[in-house]
Amino acid sequence: MSATTTLNCLSNGSFALVKEVVAEGLTRRRLLDLGLVPGTKVEVIRRSPAGDPIAFNIRGAVIALRRDVAGQVLVSPWK
Amino acid sequence: MGLTYQSTGQSSTREIFHTLADDCDYVIALAGNPNTGKSTVFNALTGLRQHTGNWPGKTVQRAEGSYIYKSHRYRLIDLPGTYSLLSNSADEEVARDFICFARPDATIVVVDATCLERNLNLALQVMEITGRVVICVNLIDEARRKKIRIDTDKLSKRLGVPVVATAARSGEGMPRLKELVSDVANKRVQTKPQPVRYSQDVEDAIARLEPRVKAIVGNSINSRWLTLRLLDGDTRLVQTMENYLNAGKTVPVMPVGQEGLA
Fold it and tell me: Which of A16, B58, B104, B242: disulfide with B27, CB 3.0–4.6 Å?
């Protein structure tokens, strides 16, 4: 099993599987509603010029997350 | 000034939403994730040319239109596209409040056939509030191009509500959608929405709290759903309820809820 990291630490074009959403309250609800439940495969599409936010392909929709929010999603890189 | 909703209580809740029941036979809500073609379905049903565009958040407020099917007039409300009814953004509140308090005769949930999975979250959330739902699996033409096949019969059996595949752009499936909406709205078809089951702890808490919630709100709002929101600690919803429902009735909700959980 590969090491755990967070969504914001992945490089463009890479894939990862969601392990856990550590956010709480409404942010947690929001992330889960966007489809970030454990086991979900996520692709890093691109970054904005400043590196924040980052666009991800989550279950067929491109969703941009700010760095601090993406940092609350634990993932394991998927090759 | 005439009668306001405050003086007449919940019976005229629809008035708050400026949806007069007088000039139509049924009120139908249109919900769905962003970018599933909701506005295209709206236009295909009503023949209106509401602006459609391929970007999120296009339908910021509701759009309304109506159509006639078998000599009944249906008023259609296009709700903002949302992924959820629970995260408390302004769009989600508009959609939730309408489904919850205006109590449409049927709600069409438009889902994207090419990524059905992510869309079913909202469908299930709507079905927790109301069973009078028709699932419209839109963009079926695009799904076919991507070699995705949707078994609408099986989906309908699993969810317990009618499901129809459509390609609103070309009009495919629209007659069937109108037929199903009319069946649900005038109760010719009884839906049996399969409720979402939670963990035992949550179900136990619901079992303890729901009877007391029901004693207060009666049938004005789905008591299981409201119980879940109270367990979530959604205090904003309680404020909203005081606006929409009879204030005197809703005041005791919180104290009883907390006591019930103690």
Answer: B104
